[in-house]
Amino acid sequence: MPDSPADAWFRDQFQKHWRDAAEKVGRFNLAIFGKTGVGKSTLINTVFGAEIAETGIGEPVTREEHLYLHDSGFLGLLDTRGLEIGIDTDQIITELGEYVARMRRQPVKEQVHLAWYCVRANDRRFEETEASFIRKLHDLGLPVIVVMTQVVKVGDNYHPDALALKWEIEALDLPIFEGRVHLTMAKPDDFAGYPSHGLQELLDASFRGAPDAVGSALTAAQKIDMKRKREHATAIISGAATAAGAAGATPIPFSDAVLLVPIQVGMMAGISVVYGIEMDKAAIASVAATASATTLGRSAATNLLKFIPGIGSVVGGTINAAVASTFTLAMGTAWSVVCAQISQGRLTVVDTAAGSQEIRELFLAELKRQIARLDIRAR
Question: pTM of the full predicted structure?
Fold first, then answer.
């Protein structure tokens, strides 16, 4: 479905702002280890989304080509191929050490920020070779979080074998982050009735263990904590509303409302980044959301002003600071709702009339609700 000239312009501006926002956010790089079959892929795909599985085995980052980096937007996932912990430990550590040392000379987003070491509950044992591997990861300067996978939980009660293994590992006094093992079940077992659990706690620990400088990247990359995403989006919306208010400090004629465009488009792009939505999908969605207000030569974002009560009756009127600020707040909140739905897979972004209509209806319904809630009126 081809863009109109106005939509094409809006999409182009949105993409520029998205790239700028994504560059500021950077990338969270996680190294993940564990024996074959512990459920690393299921854990990663649940916390960070199925896109990781689609990236294949990633790009080799060492000469030996056993250490690979999956680069999926705001997440870099470091993994090994063809080597087994306990058998090839020294080779893994050598390759990893080479990479970690090299990356420490690079910008923060290129460095390795955290390691997860996974242990399967059903194995019911933890070997000295695994303890040794964790010590060596720590010696490389990596915070190590130990994750027990496939832990059965009924109500508030964990399987006793999983608890026994957890206590056994913690009693070894290994250099693991915060000294505790995190018990998880990444996917619910609907047949047996066992729920998913432990992922939020694991994510919270990862935020505490990772450098503060990559907190925004981790927020964008993860798919399970919508509250964190909303908080980051709210901060962007607040900043944009303040900037719009400053622009309207000297009242803006309605005919010159295009002056608010960079603020509003930048806000929408920044919110899309927080929710981890790919640039092309976010751009399609943004055009769809605002398309009903598009006219040639003017941004859809500012033409949405027509939804403010009384605006149509004002001739030669102006937008003052209060209207500019609160309307931008309403736009941002409505767009955040759309992005949350896309991030959780509840809203499909497809460049078709049907897909665009669904996005547009949700955005406009939420925009009108926010305008009413904030009591925005033409002044």
Answer: 0.90
